[in-house]
Structures are given as C-alpha cells and as structure tokens.
C-alpha cells in the first residue's frame, strides 16, 4: 500500500497528464488522492515543489545508478554499459514522471530550475569523466571530443521519452541492449568492437514502436 506522499505524487501525475500543470488545483489533488490540505502541505510546500519532486525522483535514481556503476566496475567499458542500461531503464520505471516533467517544466520557479540543472550537470559530467577515463586508458577512441560524444549519448537516450511505449514490440531491456551496443561501436576502436557491422545491420529497427 502506498504511503500518503506517494499517493499524492501518483495522483498528481495522473491529473497533470490529463489537464496540464495549470489545469489542476491543490484542491483537486487533495480530493482525488483522498487526503486533506493539511496532508498535502505536510509533504509539499506548493504545487511547484511537487513538480520539482517529480523530476528529482527520476534524476536522483539515474544519478545514483551512475555513481554505483562508477564504484562497482573497474573498466570504463563496463561503467558506460551500466550507466546507459540504467539510464534507458528510467524511461520505463518513471515514464509518467518524465512525461509530465517535459510537458510542464517551463512552469518551474527559478530556484527549482537551478537545483534541477545542478543534478543534470552532475550526471552529464559523470558521463564525460567515464569517456575521458576510457580515452586515457586506451579503451575508447581518443580522437572523439569528450563533450560532443557525451552529449550524443545523452541526446540519443533522452529521446526515448518521445516514442517508447510499454506495450510496444520491444522491451526496455532490449532497447537498452541496442543502445549500449551502438554506444560501444562508436566508442571502442574497431578491433575491440563487440560485434561486426554486418551483425549490427541485422538488429531490428524499432523506431516505430507501436
């Protein structure tokens, strides 16, 4: 059974998805979640803080997973594999959070936007550091600019929220495997590539995931 904070959060996600951030009042959230205003304000100072928590939930998860990968794995190749896998997984685990955030993030107050930017930058910099570590150790191609390569990974994975469907033809694990394979193909020297280009061409195309 969900606790009250989680109940308010999940109810808000449903309401924001249907009506938009400004189309939902605290009173509506309170009524739909079966609580009181006192119960709401015990856990959230405002709707703005609630929207911040929606984002913070999934960015904190993916950042902690990246930190764990950095600690538990010794090689940059293993680290980037684990980071990408958990990063892709977040679009399934927190799909409603991510959808609401991208639709409604423009309404966040500057103080909350600053906190979100800080966490996103920390995650981005961790990816940059793993790529740089791989280049310095000789595991990754040294000619690739770290910033461009890191942003390519971030952009590729972030776009999942636009097309991924839980009832689609491919599971989130299958998608994670393909994204990891693609990343290793452009990071690793050709002699260390995990599969041949011919094999890669036989991977099913899943963009129209219906």
From TrEMBL:
Residues 25-44 bind DNA. GO terms for molecular function: DNA binding. Residues 2-62 form the HTH tetR-type domain. It comes from the Bacteria. Keywords: DNA-binding, Repressor. SUPFAM superfamilies: Homeodomain-like, Tetracyclin repressor-like, C-terminal domain. The keyword DNA-binding applies. It holds the Pfam family TetR_N. This is TetR/AcrR family transcriptional regulator. It comes from Halobacillus locisalis.
